[in-house]
Design a protein that fits this description.
Blueprint: E1 4-11, H1 17-30, E2 34-38, H2 47-51, E3 55-61, H3 67-80, E4 83-87, H4 89-92, H5 99-105, E5 107-111, E6 118-124, E7 139-143, E8 147-150, E9 155-162, E10 176-186, E11 189-194, H6 200-204, H7 206-219
Parallel strand pairs: 1-2, 1-3, 3-4, 4-11
Antiparallel strand pairs: 5-8, 6-7, 6-9, 9-10, 10-11
Amino acid sequence: MAKKALIVWGGWDGHEPEAVADLFAEILRAEQFEVKVSDTLDAFLDVDFVKSQNLIVPVWTMGSITGEQSASVTSAVAEHGVGIAGAHGGMCDSFRNDTEWQFMTGSQWVSHPGNDGLRYYVHFDRTNPHEISAGLPDFEVVSEQYYLHVDPGVNTLAYCNFPTPGAPGRHVQNPCRMPQVYTKSYGAGRVFYNALGHQRVVLEAEVPRELMRRGFLWAAS
């Protein structure tokens, strides 16, 4: 039986939510998922449908979500073992006033010093082998570099260094390794996040696309 995935897109247009949702649907369908794509958060109100999915993929930056819509997702993940996976602001800058969403997803965007067009490297944690990152090379990206407030319980697979040499620090005073790709659990469900993806082209690159493919499969397991 084919696995099922629900992709819900919307929010701030600058993150190209429809185009990113189309890319994610393409990746999932190539893996034989039965995919439903919706442009309304009301898709979450069909509680039975949501909890029948193997994977939920939010692509929704900022905006707001009702308590009923949010509870449908958090319950499906925590109580029914539905996976959730996403990228960039589409999952971890979705609903700034919903702290349970942030608890589930594992981080919240707070800044991107240097804004778009910053050149930096993403490094895999070679001391922490995982099926999602196995065999993938470190890579360079030109995009926004997300500074996140991160759940200390996440399992970091890849990170970037802050501050990036030569980039505006914007009050970043303490050098750190910022998680960029991680997994975590939320109740019975698996959570995957990739901080890259300011625009679709960033996720179309070979390694970021492969990360999303593997992350989707892992979270839906």
